[in-house]
Write a structure and sequence with these properties.
The chain is mostly beta strands. It folds into 2 domains: 323 residues, Methylamine Dehydrogenase, Chain H, CATH 2.130.10.10; 85 residues, Macroglobulin (MG2) domain (Immunoglobulin-like, Sandwich). It is built from 2 helices and 36 strands. The strands form 9 sheets. It has a 5-stranded antiparallel sheet, with no helix packed on it. Strands 3-4-5-6 form a 4-stranded antiparallel sheet. The protein is elongated.
Length: 414
């Protein structure tokens, strides 16, 4: 498992920015679909997805605003369909199976949580998870499945939803007021934390009644929005009544900041509303990618994920980027020089503070071939000469200094 994690981490590290108005494309170097995202602040967050159950390494974490990513694995091959984090340590994912995975160490390890009693066939697969705080959380899935926990997932209680539709999304404005959405444009509402649920509306606007609610967002117990194919539905009375507003293209994700609303969907269209969702206009068009989720930790910074590894970052005009905001020394790992090389090359790195440092070289199988540094070092600039008399080919060098991890590729000539 360590071998696979290292190889995937190597492949997925590094970013490249292309300006598109106030959205910047982040190069994740992955082709898996990024179904969901959750950011704690402008620099720290997760994006997750999968490739049809073909990989375990389906979570990407950044602690520097997308300048670098670390691959994380839940140990399961299913696609991550939903993720919820309440701080930098505690996060939960719904991996499209019958279990929930929880981390208490920022994703270094993920532990299994199985909602309710032992599941029986046919299994009700779980689609989304939402935590309001470190204790109170909900998960939804097939055939009206809803579970709630009040102890961070140590135990889960099944709730009676009153429906057999497949639920796709869940959101709580408070620990009492919550909503779930799913197939046939169905929306469920609870005002007692999920002890009881009622179907409050089945919108049929634009002939979209056969489509499902793909995302929900509520600013408070009354004002909320729901993403549905070709439209965003808005409510001002907690979901008792809904008003549809067209977005022309499919709508998969919706979110509102203090001043703006954002909706994303099919064919790369990003829609924006400045009047609470009454009207929507195309903010920008990023191409043919299908967009799946939108996450704003604050009004000035946002993230959009999509198909084929698509990831975009938003910075409000006038907001300083992560790299521009740094005024002092930062952790960094330089490309080795020369590269390609034979028989030796120089690896340089920088430490902004005293750290326990490991600089390790791996082959393409993820096997360690050299340990160049393994000690505590003071802040400063360092360089290490790597002599290699091994077989020619591709190698990877990995720097770990505290929580900072970066990996780069180098080539040994014959």
């Amino acid at each position: 498992m360590i071998k696979h994690l290292l190889i995937a981490t190597i492949i997925l590290l590094g970013t490249h920015f292309l300006h598109a108005q106030t959205w910047e494309k982040i190069n994740t170097n992955t082709t898996m679909n990024l179904w969901c995202s959750c950011f704690i602040d402008s620099t720290y967050g997760w994006v997750a997805g999968g490739a049809g159950g073909s990989t375990k390494n389906n979570i990407l974490k950044t602690t520097d605003g997308g300048l670098s990513f670390v691959t994380q694995s839940t140990g399961f091959y299913g696609d991550i369909m939903g993720i919820s984090a309440v701080d930098k340590n505690n996060a939960w994912v719904a991996d499209g199976s019958i279990i929930i995975k929880h981390t208490t160490d920022g994703g270094t390890t993920w532990k299994t949580q199985t909602p309710g009693p032992s599941p029986t066939f046919p299994y009700n697969l779980l689609s989304d998870v939402f935590f309001k705080d470190v204790n109170n959380g909900w998960v939804v899935g097939d055939n009206g499945t809803i579970y709630r926990t009040t102890d961070g997932g140590v135990s889960w209680a099944k709730q009676t939803s009153g429906t057999t539709i497949n639920l796709k999304t869940v959101f709580f404005a408070t620990t009492s007021d919550g909503w779930a959405g799913g197939d046939f444009a169905s929306v469920l509402r609870t005002n007692d934390g999920g002890a009881s649920w009622s179907v409050v509306v089945t919108p049929t606007a634009f002939g979209r009644d056969t489509y499902g609610i793909s995302d929900l967002f509520f600013r408070d117990a009354n004002q909320g929005w729901a993403a549905i194919s070709g439209a965003v539905l808005r409510t001002g009375d907690g979901g008792n009544t809904w008003i549809p507003e067209s977005t022309s293209d499919g709508s998969n994700g919706v979110l509102f900041t203090e001043s703006d609303g954002w909706a994303v969907g099919s064919f790369g269209a990003i829609f924006r509303s400045g009047d609470g969702g009454v009207t929507w206009t195309i903010h920008t068009d990023i191409g043919d990618a299908f967009l799946y989720s939108v996450s704003f930790p604050d009004a000035d910074h946002g993230w959009i994920t999509g198909s084929g590894g698509t990831l975009y970052q938003y910075k409000k005009p006038g907001t300083t980027s992560v790299s521009e905001a740094v005024t002092g020394p930062v952790f960094s790992l330089d490309q080795n020089y020369p590269n390609p090389f034979n028989p030796s090359t120089i690896i340089r790195y920088q430490l902004p503070r005293s750290s326990v440092v490991k600089l390790t070289v791996y082959n393409t199988l993820g096997q360690q071939v050299a340990q160049l540094v393994n000690e505590k070092q003071q802040a400063g600039d360092y360089e290490v000469i790597f002599h290699n008399n091994r077989q020619s080919g591709t190698y990877f060098y990995r720097l770990q200094a505290g929580e900072y991890i970066a990996t780069k590729k180098m080539t040994l000539l014959p």
